[in-house]
């Protein structure tokens, strides 16, 4: 049941940030020392469904990025890590902590909207968008589940879930270090160390990465490049195992950064497809971020029955932005934005052991989140327009999921979750308080069949949900509530191995029925600012398919490829005009994605080897407005890394975006009437890396 309000608004709110919807890989010479045959057995264990399972025998499409791939392919962030995943594109939006996402027909909605997928680090769901920018420090594996995962992860997992598993502390001392230098005067470094504090009882791991860059995108009206930046990320953990049945894992991560951002350049609508505008802003955009996240996970193994898990987490993210507000070289207006997100959560979960035909888990979840938002639009010689509000979100949920093997080949799975959401909004400028409530069921049902050890098929129904919310108000505008969106997903798929696991081929076809799909619009009001609003589309449908192929023809050589297609069409726009934009494509959705990669290790004399990684990503055309008038054509990106390893040392050559493709990352469609505001990705980058293990 839900309480629904309708008003009309826009908000200057995040000013630019609302127009559209860091970065370092945990380089590990130890990981590079593994050959690319490491997965030849195809028995990759994943935990994305909150129990240990084999990736090839779960009824969900899942892509796995291993530690060796993270190091060998120069994957710095989650954004890099998912670049070879079908039907998933993640771009920097207006700055590193602000993403533009296309995921099976779902997208981001600016600063105030929710991600269409859950990001989970060691069992802790990360709140908001800010924490997605953190570097891949001490990461062992990344698991990308596609399709609604709301049963286990709640309202933030309507399109899927990205599960990050960090490296566990070791019982012996081990460490890594690396340094990169790239054009743009970019310097990156990482160190990591793990080992025992008390042998067999208490272990630690810690890692830190840092970067500083002048950037690669010129600002024609300022000495600073638009994409300059510097930052430091740390991740540390302690694991205490007082007995064989009980373990405690205490984790902490931090990020402090200062990056260029909120830069936009106007381009006439008729030239949008062919012109790449350069920013020309007299005031450089600066985004200062400070992120803190802490968690305590306790596991109590009850022999012969189940494991009781408690996860307590607290996080605080702060971003402070100063930037140009007229997007020209003239000194007309500036803007400031301050955003603070404070969240704590508690989960209790009971997970059965893996013996017997029945496997289950059940639990409860509570989250308390506060979003403190302040902004100002300051015209030179004019009156500032202010925004000051506090939003409070409380979520309660009960969930459960079970699987039963009717035979050693046939398995049934069912799951159910119910979320209750209480929201309040305080406008500090007017004293106005607004409230709304939502409650939504989510569920899952699947049947899977193992035809042979090498062929697995499944059919799944799942329901996902993304919560509604508030658009920030201003002193000149009224508030708009927007409703939740729901998605019913129907999917069939297969997973297969051939030639003694030398070839892996997985595929899926899906149909998704949306109700109330959320999307954002923006406009500029002269002398007042940029206003954005999230609203709902009545009905949308997605028909899609995807396939992943991996071939390991010989020791040291691995070939991979994937293909994804999502046809996303509006079927019922708004009650007042359901036929408007019928069969138009949802903005920011890449309907076609295609990827290919190669990894090769040539073994040289003694303990030396030469490793090569190369990958290519192709994206089809994309529309940026609901009218389907602003279009970007197909783009193809190349990346490569060549590494010479000798004993504990390695040296690498790195190339990123070698095809020098330029594509929009953040777009404010028709924001200036007959012109659009847009920012673009950086050009080609190349450099070297030196690493060691000890």
UniProtKB/TrEMBL annotation:
Gene Ontology biological-process annotations: iron ion transport
Ranges of residues in domain TonB-dependent receptor-like beta-barrel: 281-658
SUPFAM superfamilies documented for this protein: Porins
Positions of the TonB-dependent receptor plug domain: 56-161
InterPro entries according to UniProt: Beta-barrel_TonB (IPR000531), Beta-barrel_TonB_sf (IPR036942), Plug_dom (IPR012910), TonB-dep_rcpt-like (IPR039426)
Signal sequence extent: 1-33
Membrane topology, from the record: Multi-pass membrane protein
Subcellular location: Cell outer membrane
Cellular compartments per GO CC: cell outer membrane
The keyword Oxidoreductase is assigned to this record: no
UniProt cross-references to Pfam families, sorted A to Z: Plug, TonB_dep_Rec_b-barrel
CDD domains per record: ligand_gated_channel (cd01347)
Iron-sulfur keyword on record: no
Keywords: Cell outer membrane, Ion transport, Iron, Iron transport, Membrane, Signal, TonB box, Transmembrane, Transmembrane beta strand, Transport
Record-stated family: Belongs to the TonB-dependent receptor family.
PANTHER family assigned to the protein according to its UniProt record, in alphabetical order: FERRICHROME IRON RECEPTOR-RELATED (PTHR32552), TONB-DEPENDENT OUTER MEMBRANE RECEPTOR (PTHR32552:SF81)
Protein name listed in UniProt: TonB-denpendent receptor
């Amino acid at each position: 049941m839900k309480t629904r309000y309708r008003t009309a608004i826009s908000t200057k709110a995040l000013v630019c940030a609302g127009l559209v919807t860091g970065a370092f890989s945990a380089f590990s010479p130890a990981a590079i020392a593994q050959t690319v045959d490491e997965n030849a057995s195809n028995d990759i264990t994943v935990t994305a469904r909150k129990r240990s399972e084999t990736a090839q025998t779960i009824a969900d499409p899942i892509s796995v990025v291993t530690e060796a791939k993270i190091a060998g392919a120069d994957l710095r962030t989650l954004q890099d890590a998912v670049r070879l995943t079908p039907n998933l594109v993640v771009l920097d939006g207006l700055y590193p902590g602000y993403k533009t996402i296309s995921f099976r027909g779902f997208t981001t909605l600016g600063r105030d909207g929710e991600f269409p997928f859950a990001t989970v680090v060691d069992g802790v769901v990360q709140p908001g968008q800010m924490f997605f920018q953190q570097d891949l420090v001490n990461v062992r594996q990344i698991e990308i589940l596609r399709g609604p995962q709301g049963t286990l992860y709640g309202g933030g997992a309507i399109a899927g879930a990205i599960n990050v598993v960090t490296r566990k502390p070791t019982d012996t001392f081990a460490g890594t270090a690396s340094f990169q230098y790239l054009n743009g005067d970019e310097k990156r470094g990482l160190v990591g160390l793990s080992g025992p504090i008390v042998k067999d009882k208490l272990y630690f791991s810690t890692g830190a990465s840092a970067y500083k860059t002048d950037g690669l995108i010129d600002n024609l009206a300022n000495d600073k490049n638009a994409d300059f930046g510097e930052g430091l990320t740390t991740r540390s953990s302690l694991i205490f195992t007082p007995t064989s049945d009980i373990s405690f894992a205490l984790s902490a991560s931090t990020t402090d950064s200062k990056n260029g951002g909120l830069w936009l350049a106007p381009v006439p609508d008729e030239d949008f497809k062919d012109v790449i505008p350069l920013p020309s802003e007299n005031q450089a955009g600066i985004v200062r971020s400070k992120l803190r996240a802490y968690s305590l996970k306790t596991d109590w193994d009850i022999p012969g029955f189940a494991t009781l898990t408690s996860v307590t987490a607290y996080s605080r993210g702060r971003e402070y932005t100063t930037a140009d507000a007229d997007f020209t070289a003239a000194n007309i207006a500036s803007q400031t934005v301050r955003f603070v997100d404070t969240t704590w959560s508690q989960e209790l979960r009971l997970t059965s052991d893996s013996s017997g035909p029945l496997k289950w888990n059940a639990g409860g979840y509570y989250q308390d989140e506060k979003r403190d938002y302040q902004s100002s639009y300051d015209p030179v010689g004019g009156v500032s327009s202010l925004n000051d509000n506090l939003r409070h979100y409380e979520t309660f949920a009960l969930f459960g999921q079970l699987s039963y093997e009717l035979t050693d080949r046939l398995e049934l799975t069912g799951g159910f979750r119910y979320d209750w959401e209480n929201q309040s909004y305080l406008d500090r400028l007017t004293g106005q308080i607004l409230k709304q409530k939502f409650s939504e069921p989510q569920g899952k049902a699947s049947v899977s069949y193992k035809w042979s050890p090498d062929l697995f098929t499944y059919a799944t129904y799942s329901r996902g949900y993304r919560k509604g919310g508030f658009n920030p108000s201003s002193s000149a505008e009224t508030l708009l509530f927007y409703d939740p969106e729901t998605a019913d997903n129907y999917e069939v798929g297969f997973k297969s191995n051939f030639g003694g696991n030398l070839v892996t081929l997985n595929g899926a076809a899906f149909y998704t029925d949306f109700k109330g799909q959320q999307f954002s619009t923006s406009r500029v009001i002269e002398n007042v600012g940029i206003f954005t609003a999230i609203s709902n589309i009545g009905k949308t449908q997605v028909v899609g398919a995807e396939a992943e192929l991996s071939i390991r023809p010989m020791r040291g050589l691995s070939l991979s490829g994937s293909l994804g297609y999502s046809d996303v069409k509006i079927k019922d726009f708004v009650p007042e005009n359901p036929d408007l934009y019928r069969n138009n494509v949802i903005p920011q959705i890449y309907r076609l994605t295609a990827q290919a990669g190669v990894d090769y290790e040539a073994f040289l004399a003694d303990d030396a080897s030469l490793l090569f990684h190369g990958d290519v990503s192709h994206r089809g055309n994309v529309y940026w407005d609901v009218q389907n008038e602003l279009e970007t054509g197909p783009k193809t990106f190349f990346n490569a890394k060549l590494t010479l390893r000798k004993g504990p040392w390695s040296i690498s050559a790195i190339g990123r975006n070698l095809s020098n493709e330029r594509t929009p990352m953040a777009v404010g469609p028709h924001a200036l009437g007959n012109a659009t505001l847009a920012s673009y990705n950086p050009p080609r980058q190349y450099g070297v890396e030196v690493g060691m293990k000890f």
